[in-house]
Every structure is written in structure tokens, then in C-alpha cells.
């Protein structure tokens, strides 16, 4: 077997390839030099240098003509390929620099009733602006989400709690949702225009499992000021509302739950509503993260919020 000589040289640069391709396409050194906007002598010198580094003649030259050798024909195809690949790589790099391509990993709080109303609108606008960015959603609880952001496993997270937010994380409040009492239409509470928490001390409560939404669970217990009599624990809000409709108990839920079910249940506001009776939906990210992907998502989020605020203001007027 004939050993194949390795003609690669680390000294070969992209300019050598560009000069070679220009001469190969023009088959004339003066015209190639004019095309490259350089003088002919340096061009001829660079081609001789390239041939020396490769250890092969790329052109046959005489006083009247310039032709490619067999090796030159092969090298032309490869040189064009390398230059095309580099051009594409530079274009992809510029797209990445502007946040036009890449992957955005977003966590969301598993208590989906808190964020269902806002996530789709934000994602829709972002996808319209940046269709080539891959978006991966990941369900997490709060602690997992914050740890994942800090570890840069995800870049952003939709959450429902601002207390104890690590100092290296930043946040944007995207929604403030009041808590309401939900009960069956035949339940005595349904006749009340607003309900005081202290009046619920003897009621049978239905909650989502604490492990699925420990923050929300603990928040309700804290608000009540007593240990609720929990008769049922379910996996998700839809099941919770179904059991409430069956008059198996009552619950306290974010007002956004009405978008999931408004038949067979009655929602009543809390009497003397305080700031503590409101759930905030947040968008969280690393304070030091200046990547275009994250910044573009934040811009889209703020635009959605601004549009929503304008819509709410027009309705009130």
C-alpha cells in the first residue's frame, strides 16, 4: 500500500484559500489581483507560498496562460467548501450574537394554574420574533427551578414566589392574582358576596398535594391562621375543582382558576383582601445573564405585559 502524504500545514490561512480560488476562477493573475483589490506581486507570492506549504503545484504557468493542475482541480473544490463552511459559520455566529438561533430552556412552576394565563401569550410573541430558537419547557418546583437557573441548566423560570429569592437571581412580576374561595353552588358559602377566612375554620378543604405545590399549600395554611381540615388531596387543580363541584369540600385557589372551570362551581373573593392574599407570577433569571436569548425573551415579556395593561386600562375606561 502506498502511504498517503499528509499535506496539511497549520500555516495555511483563509487568505491563502481566497487568493487561490480567485486565481483559479479567473485563470489570470492580474484579473484575480484586481478582483481581490491587491497588487499582483503579493498575490503571486502568496500562491507560491501556498504551493510550497502543500508540497504540490496548483497551477501551470507560462507567459500566455494559467491552468490548474490535476491537484489544483481537486484543491479548488475543497477550498471552496472550506470558504463556504466558514462563511456559514460566521453567519451562524452573527445570528447567535443577536439571539436569532440557539436553545432557550425555561422552567415553569408545577402549580400550572398560576401561570397558564400568561405563558402562552409570551411564548407566542417570542416564537413570532425568533422562529429558529428552540424552546424547551421544564416543569419544576420553586427550589429546583432556582437551583437549575443558578447552575445554568435553564436560563429562565416562571415562578409564583418572590420570598427568599437568591441574590444572584433577578425577577420581573408579570401577574398579580388574588386568591378566592371556590365552592359548589349549593354550598352555604355561595350565597355570600365575600368570605372571611375565619369563617372557614370548620369547613372541609380540598388541596393539591403539598409535594406538587408546597409553596402554595404553605401560603394558604399561613393565610388561614389555622390548620385547615383537609379531607382530600389531589394531584392537580382540575381534579380539585371537580371535587368541589361535587360538593365534597371547598378550597382556596388563584382567581385565574376560573379559566379552567366556571361550570358547577362558585368563586367568591376574600373579605378585606390584603397584599398577602395575592399570588405573584414571576419571571426569574440569573442577574449576570446578558445573553441575547434571555434579553430578547425579557423584551417580549415586557411587551406582552404592556399590551395587557393597555387592554385592562381601556376596559376600565
Structural notes for this entry:
With 317 residues, the protein is an alpha/beta fold. It has 3 domains: 14-97, Orthogonal Bundle (Arc Repressor Mutant, subunit A), CATH 1.10.10.10; 103-159 and 288-316, 3-Layer(aba) Sandwich (D-Maltodextrin-Binding Protein, domain 2); 176-278, D-Maltodextrin-Binding Protein, domain 2 (3-Layer(aba) Sandwich). Helix content is 41%, strand content 22%. The chain has 9 helices and 11 strands. The chain has helices spanning 14-26, 29-36, 40-54, 70-97, 119-129, 142-150, 214-224, 237-245, 292-316, and strands at residues 59-61, 66-68, 102-109, 133-140, 156-159, 169-183, 204-208, 229-234, 251-254, 266-269, 278-286. The strands form 3 sheets. Strands 3, 4, 5, 6, 9, 10 and 11 form a 7-stranded mixed sheet that branches. Strands 1-2 form a two-stranded antiparallel sheet. Helix 1 (14-26) crosses helix 2 (29-36) and helix 1 crosses helix 4 (70-97). The radius of gyration is 33 Å and the shape is rod-shaped. Mean pLDDT is 85; it is low at 1-7.
Amino acid at each position: 500500500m502506498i502511504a498517503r502524504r499528509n499535506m496539511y500545514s497549520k500555516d495555511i490561512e483563509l487568505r491563502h484559500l481566497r487568493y487561490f480560488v480567485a486565481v483559479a476562477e479567473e485563470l489570470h493573475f492580474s484579473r484575480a489581483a484586481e478582483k481581490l483589490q491587491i497588487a499582483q506581486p503579493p498575490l503571486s507570492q502568496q500562491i507560491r507560498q501556498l504551493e510550497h506549504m502543500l508540497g504540490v503545484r496548483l497551477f501551470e504557468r507560462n507567459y500566455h496562460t494559467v491552468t490548474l493542475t490535476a491537484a489544483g482541480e481537486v484543491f479548488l473544490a475543497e477550498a471552496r467548501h472550506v470558504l463556504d463552511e466558514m462563511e456559514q459559520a460566521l453567519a451562524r455566529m452573527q445570528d447567535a450574537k443577536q439571539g436569532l438561533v440557539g436553545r432557550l430552556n425555561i422552567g415553569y412552576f408545577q402549580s400550572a394554574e398560576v401561570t397558564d394565563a400568561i405563558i402562552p401569550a409570551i411564548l407566542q410573541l417570542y416564537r413570532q420574533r425568533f422562529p429558529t430558537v428552540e424552546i424547551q419547557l421544564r416543569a419544576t418546583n420553586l427550589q429546583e427551578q432556582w437551583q437549575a437557573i443558578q447552575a445554568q441548566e435553564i436560563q429562565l423560570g416562571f415562578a409564583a414566589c418572590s420570598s427568599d429569592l437568591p441574590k444572584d437571581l433577578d425577577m420581573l412580576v408579570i401577574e398579580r392574582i388574588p386568591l378566592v374561595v371556590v365552592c359548589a353552588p349549593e354550598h352555604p358559602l355561595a350565597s355570600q358576596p365575600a368570605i372571611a377566612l375565619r369563617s372557614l375554620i370548620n369547613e372541609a378543604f380540598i388541596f393539591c398535594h403539598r409535594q406538587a405545590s408546597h409553596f402554595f399549600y404553605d401560603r394558604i395554611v399561613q393565610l388561614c391562621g389555622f390548620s385547615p381540615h383537609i379531607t382530600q388531596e389531589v394531584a392537580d387543580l382540575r381534579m380539585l375543582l371537580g371535587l368541589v363541584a361535587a360538593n365534597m369540600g371547598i378550597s382556596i385557589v388563584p382567581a385565574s382558576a376560573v379559566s379552567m372551570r366556571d361550570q358547577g362551581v362558585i368563586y367568591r373573593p376574600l373579605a378585606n383582601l390584603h397584599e398577602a392574599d395575592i399570588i405573584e407570577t414571576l419571571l426569574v433569571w440569573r442577574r449576570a445573564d446578558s445573553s441575547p436569548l434571555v434579553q430578547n425573551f425579557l423584551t417580549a415579556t415586557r411587551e406582552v405585559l404592556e399590551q395587557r395593561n393597555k387592554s385592562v386600562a381601556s376596559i376600565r375606561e
